[in-house]
Every structure is written in structure tokens, then in C-alpha cells.
Protein: Glutathione S-transferase N-terminal domain-containing protein
Organism: Rhodoferax mekongensis
Amino acid sequence: MTDLSTFPITAKWPAQHPDRLQLYSLPTPNGVKVSIALEELGLPYEAHKVSFQTNDQTTPEFLSLNPNNKIPAILDPQGPGGQPLALFESGAILIYLADKTGKLLPADPAQRYQAIQWLMWQMGGLGPMFGQLGFFHKFAGKDYEDKRPRDRYVAESKRLLGVLNQHLKGRTWLMGDDYTVADIAIFPWVRNLVGFYEAGDLVGFADFPEVARVLAAFVARPAVVRGLAVPA
């Protein structure tokens, strides 16, 4: 059995099953990317809640795994060469899990990079823009009299939804019939935009029927239902 006790993070979040992949996360759009992927892949894992209310993400134990103090992060006891691997950044983790299992990314090199490009599109555009919109629409930003910051992110979110809507025409998923890490990265953020952020009317979500269609198919997947609730 792999000994994970040498990793400081296990002092705060002890591994009850050190032979399983350890997930440190919260059920946020970025966090559930990894739990959904793990559920889709059927990989054994143990989830640990990193509570923002108690600033768990800034503790020395968590920073020892992710110096950027963001969730999610993982510790895989069976990493490359059979050695433990600590990894942060949700996009990097998704690619790692896909490569580890040979699933959720196309085998064809060209299609593989096309899927990764949509993953990067989410990481660099969709997630940050939706997050800023949520701040200015629902949280502290809603008290600003000047609505130009909010409107800037509304406009960019609409543009990104238009890009996604156009690409999905005639496709079941981002990569056609193949369900990939690109879908797992993008649709938790779309769900958050119209659900938790309550910004569906603000961005005119009804104008993006292809996005709505694929979102409905995404949230109906059993593995997605399970992954959205991790960690409890």
C-alpha cells in the first residue's frame, strides 16, 4: 500500500483509503470538473472538502499541494511510474485523468488537440468571464451604481455563448458524438451561469438553444449527477 503520510496535506485531511486517488475540492464549477470526470471514468477516489468559510485553502497543508491556493487539487498514489503525483489546476487534472485511463480524449492526435483547444477556451475565457459576471450581477458588484463593469462581462458572456452555440449545431457534444473533457469543463460553468448566478435572462440564454440542449443532456448523465454533489 502506498504511504501518503510524507505529503503534508494528509496531516489535515488524512487518507482513509491511501490506495485511492485523493481529491481536495468543493462543488464549484471548477471543482466538479474533476469529480465528474472521476465518476465518468469509474476511478476509485476519496474526496476531501476544502472549506472556504474556514480558509482551508490558505493553510500550510493545502498550500503544500497547491501553492496557488485554489481548488481542485489531487494526490494520485498511482501516478506515472507507479509513484505518487500531486497535481493542481482543473484543466491539467482533466488531461491527466484522460491520459491515465485512455478515455475522455480522442485517440486521433488531431481530434485530441481540438478537444484540448475547447478545454483551454473554457479555462481562458468562459470560466473567467462567467465568474466576473456572477460577481457583478449577484454578489458585491450588484451594489455598484456604475453598471459598465457588469455590462462588459454580460456582453462577453453573450459572445462566448454565441461561439459555443454555433459550434454545437449538428453535434451531440463538443467533439461530435464523442463526450470529452471539453464538455466536462464547459457545462458546469454554463449550469452555474443560469442556475447559481441567476443570469439566464441577463444574457438572453433562450437565444442559445444548442447550448441549452447540450446542457440538458449533460446534467442528465448519472455520473454528472453524482459528481455535482462531491464533496458532500
In short: The mean pLDDT is 96. Strands lie at 21-25, 45-49, 73-76, 85-88. The CA atoms of residues 50 and 217 lie 29 Å apart.
